[in-house]
Amino acid sequence: MAPLENDLFLRALLRQPTPRTPLWMMRQAGRYLPEYRATRAKAGSFMQLCMTPDYACEVTLQPLARYRLDAAILFSDILTIPHALGLGLEFEAGEGPKLDRPVRTPADIDRLPTLDPERELRYVMDAVRTIRRELGGRVPLIGFAGSPWTVATYCVEGGSSKAFARIKSMLYGAPQELHRLLAHLTRATTDYLNAQIRAGAQAVMVFDTWGGALAPAAYREFSLRYMADICAGLIREQDGRQVPVILFTKGGGQWLGELAATGADALGVDWTTDLASARAAVGGRVALQGNLDPSVLYAPPAAIRAEVAKVLASYGTGPGHVFNLGHGIHPDVPPEHAGAMVDAVHELSPAYHR
Questions:
Q1: Catalytic, out of 40, 104, 132, 279
Q2: pLDDT in tens, 70-82
Q3: Which of 3, 142, 254, 279 has its CA 20 to 30 A from that of 112?
């Protein structure tokens, strides 16, 4: 494959010096872009968009044509594993994901098959290979998966949830069964991410979207330990280069010190935690990614620039910072406002790397 022209993102994840702060956006390939909506219409459905490598490649590259970003992220979904497990995933307009065959009994867990990512999730690997070829070494490609806990919430609830009543009932009432499910998902996720790395992903990220819904002891037992298991099982060098691992628990600011002990190279930080506090909590053990409030992008460009400056100042000087939003970009953000954020990072961040 082509040599990497811009490796700032990978260097920052490994806390190596960079001339400026690299950046990308969570959900950078998404509904806020009119070109994404056009490709989505061609594909016919969200799942067809994910499952057709050429379409997945097309939308992955779209934000790079607009913005000076330092990484591409595979266009896919955190629920590809439940889909491959035969749980009947569908995306209903305006209602989010639905699983026709949720996992709620010991027998349901017993029936879960063992995944071969190159077979059941071949379309993802083909997308990774296609994207790497089309990137031509411009920037690195990020692969990703949902955390076992987060994916389990969808498997048990049958879709999105606010109260997490069914899975928390399992957590407190039948913890041994939930551990069986989480162990199964951890093996599948580790194999899935390793397959992405072998196909060409140059860094991987684990999205623990719902870890923040847990009490501290439950977080450690049912989310953190399984992400640590994934870190321990991942390929960490490929094609002569280290493959960094990013963990991100939304709402997980209080656990950053413990997350830093998992073996991850970097941690995502949402906008509810100052980067200065996060940096103190991790004590230089890992890089940090974040953490502009996505809602800042509704503001005028001058205000966006001022908020970018605050995030950069909060992290301070030196290596180990990847600029990002604190969560995914909102679908109704004007694309030019995202551009204002990107331009501000390029213009303001070099002062922190002298």
A1: 40
A2: 999 999 999 999 9
A3: 142
